Amino acid sequence: MSNAKVKSAATQPGALKKNSVSVLGVFGPKADMRALMRLSSGRVKEVKTGSRVASGTVVAIDEHGIMLRQSGQTKRITIPGS
Q1: The predicted structure's pLDDT at residue 55
Q2: How far apart are CA 30 and CA 21, in angstroms?
Q3: pLDDT at 14
Q4: Smallest Cα–Cα separation from 66: which of 39, 15, 3?
Q5: Which of 6, 32, 37, 78 lies most in the core, judged by the most C-beta atoms within 10 Å?
Q6: Could you report the average pLDDT of every consecutive run of 10 residues in the chain (82 residues)?
Q7: pTM to 2 decimal places
Q8: The predicted structure's pLDDT at residue 54
Q9: Can you give the residue ranges of every domain in the chain?
């Protein structure tokens, strides 16, 4: 793949909202998946099921993103572009 194609595939303007939590990617075996999350502060953190982040708890991770429980509600946060 040429450098121009890689750059085009890797950059998606507006894909990450500045003041919210985003999932950058997931990795690891299905039984122990981890995710890289960009927090609203801009900090990047590696998380696993049970991790506390953004005043919530990661309750599941799959190939599409994470499930985050906050204030008794669970929401899916997907990887941008997936």
Answers
A1: 79
A2: 23
A3: 56
A4: 39
A5: 37
A6: 49 61 92 93 94 92 95 92 72
A7: 0.77
A8: 75
A9: 16-78
Residues in contact with 58: Cβ distance below 8 Å, sequence separation at least 6, in sequence order? 35, 47, 48, 49, 50, 51, 52, 66, 67, 68
Residue appearing with tokens 């008794």: 72
Which pLDDT score, from 0 to 100, does residue 1 have? 40
CA angle 56-15-21, nearest 5°? 10
d(CA 60, CA 55): 16
Closest listed residue to residue 62, CA positions, set 82, 38, 39, 44: 82
Alpha carbon distances (Å) from 52 to 6, 8, 26, 32, 48: 33, 33, 17, 16, 9
Tell me how far apart the alpha carbons of residues 62 and 75 are, in angstroms, rounded to a whole number. 13
- pLDDT given for residue 16 in this prediction: 57
**The architecture CATH gives domain 16-78:** Roll (2.30)
